[in-house]
Design goal:
Layout (H helix, E strand, L loop, with lengths): L8 H11 L31 E2 L5 E2 L2 E4 L26 H13 L5 E5 L6 H18 L5 E5 L6 H10 L2 E3 L7 H7 L5 H22 L8 H11 L5 E4 L2 E5 L12 E2 L21 E2 L5 H8 L8 E7 L6 H15 L3 E6 L18 H17 L3 H4 L13 H7 L7 E2 L5 H4 L7 H10 L7 H7 L3 H4 L3 E2 L12 H11 L4 H8 L10 H6 L1
């Protein structure tokens, strides 16, 4: 291991926590494990940094790299091998002591552990496994642990980490093969997809062997399952309008092993086609008796996630959401995270960012991702090859609605759950409340507001007992303009659309021109 002995633990922590800030895969853990007498920590439903639990508490985790040493030279990464930055590494003992020390001081409820590549992927992954084993077995830590699997590491090491971690993730980084070859030539698509496939198979087998302890499926899976149970077999239909395909999931093979479909839509080639990934079967988890049962946990029971960098290469939003949808379908990921590209290195292959990181684009992708996971939208509904990028002014749900005015108005007293989710201003929670409330009586616009419907958006698309809130306009331009006025936009975008308000000390343009 490469260690800088002149650095204190505090200095190492400062370097390695700062180096981890570009990894955005932090969200609610989805785990629920209470504390136990004689052991330390717990993992509640939202046990990860900058998240909120069900009772409103804001809780966090220690988010660090094991090392910022790296043998790879990814052009977008601050820790690339060619950069002259301070390098250091933790030892497994140091990282365990830090985690327990922060937990005892009530600073954290879990650990988010990623790493650069020290010497080799196997060497790095073995150090991570030692750290996790030490935390669980020697320090009896029961808090939440999110661990990054190192692409290219031995599958036995990936499996070993899975029995100690609550969630695992492998960063896709760049969604296309072309982008990967351009900016991360040391990484291969095969080395990224193989551990994803292994983790998926391990979670599925763990679920079968250990029941609920083995973890649950993703929100995307449950949304599609509910749509299928509602009678939507192949296509989602709203008032006779076809609006997206419902996909089927791969199921356990008859022999108890788990295999993936031969075609995995997890990357997009230069010509826009999706390459095939060979089918592979996993015949059992070798370390189940050694690690899984004594630990009392499932294999990565909180699922797996990944991250894509947005704006470093020239992919369209349509390509990005299509890749995300394929990952949800084929790998049953809990989340796909989107990280706006931040230019930290000077390189001719990296794009210039005159307006700064594409944060608005990142925000639109997160909104679209939410629609796919919880609302039942398909990527092909939100965008097409002819309209490949999201509207900068309207959120994706509003943008879909104004392009499908033939579906509206929707009568809230009669519409089914999935049709209600097509209405801007109505989310899954308010849609469920509407369906339940109308069983016991009528609804009014005032009661819709109390239920949680955002009427300033929904009013253009709904009727309630045949009534409208004001005059109903089904003109696309009128509705678009009205929705734009209610959008919270960055100041520079608002100025471009509507102009800006003059200050007291600003001369009118004609006055300044004439002197």
């Amino acid at each position: 291991m490469i260690l800088n002995e002149s650095l204190s633990i505090e200095q190492k922590l400062e370097i390695l926590s700062d180096a981890a800030k570009y990894d955005v895969a932090c969200t609610s853990s989805g785990m629920q494990r209470e504390g136990k007498k004689g052991e330390l920590g717990n993992s509640v439903a939202a046990g990860i940094c900058h998240s909120f639990s069900a009772d409103g508490r804001c809780i966090s985790l220690l988010k660090v790299l094991f090392t910022n040493e790296c043998i790879y030279d990814c052009k977008y990464c601050i820790n690339r091998s060619s950069n002259d930055v301070p390098r250091t590494s933790f030892t497994p003992r140091e990282l365990c002591e830090l985690t327990i020390g922060f937990y005892k001081r009530n600073y954290i409820e879990g650990l988010f552990l990623s790493s650069g590549i020290l010497h080799t992927p196997d060497y790095t992954m073995e150090l991570i496994c030692r750290t996790l084993q030490m935390l669980r077995e020697e320090y009896h830590f029961r808090g939440y642990i999110h661990c990054k699997a190192i692409p290219g590491a031995n599958p036995v090491l990936v499996e070993y980490a899975g029995w100690y971690a609550d969630r695992m993730s492998v960063n896709l980084e760049l969604p296309t093969n072309e982008g990967l070859r351009l900016l991360a030539p040391n990484k291969t698509r095969k080395n990224i997809l193989e551990p994803m496939r292994q983790i998926q198979a391990g979670i599925a087998e763990s679920r079968q062997l250990l029941g609920f302890m083995g973890g649950n499926r993703s929100a995307y899976y449950f949304t599609k399952k509910a749509a299928k149970q509602a009678g939507i077999e192949q296509r989602f239909r709203t008032n006779g309008i076809e609006t997206g395909r419902i996909s089927t999931k791969s199921e356990p093979a008859g022999d108890g092993s788990f295999s993936l479909q031969s075609t995995v839509q997890a990357s997009v080639a230069e010509d826009g086609t999706v390459p095939a990934v060979p089918e592979k079967k996993y015949q059992g988890l070798a370390l189940l008796n050694e690690v899984g049962k004594p630990a009392g946990r499932g294999f990565a029971a909180a699922g797996q996630s990944t991250q894509m960098i947005i704006g470093a290469t020239k992919e369209t939003d349509y390509q990005l959401v299509s890749v995300a949808e394929a990952l949800y379908q084929k790998f049953d990921l809990k989340r796909v995270f989107y990280s706006a590209f931040v230019k930290v290195n000077e390189d001719s292959t990296l794009p210039d960012l005159p307006g700064g990181p594409p944060l608005l684009r990142e925000h639109r992708l997160y909104q679209a991702d939410w629609l796919m996971r919880y609302y039942g939208f398909a990527a092909g509904e939100l965008l097409t090859e002819n309209r490949p990028n999201f509207n900068a002014v309207l959120d994706p749900q509003c943008d879909w609605a104004v392009h499908h005015m033939e579906v509206f108005p929707v009568e809230v007293l009669k519409a089914d759950y999935f049709l209600l989710l097509r209405v801007p201003g109505i989310g899954p929670k308010s849609a469920r409340r509407i369906v339940e409330a109308r069983k016991s009586g009528g609804l009014s616009f005032e009661s819709l507001k109390r239920i949680g419907v955002v009427l300033k958006r929904a009013q253009y698309f709904i009727t309630c007992a045949g009534k409208t809130l004001g005059q109903l306009h089904l003109d696309e331009n009128y509705v678009t303009q009205s929705l734009m006025l209610n959008e919270r936009l960055p100041k520079n975008l608002k100025d471009a659309l509507y102009g800006h308000q003059m200050s007291l000390f600003e001369l009118p343009a004609f006055t300044a021109a004439t002197g």
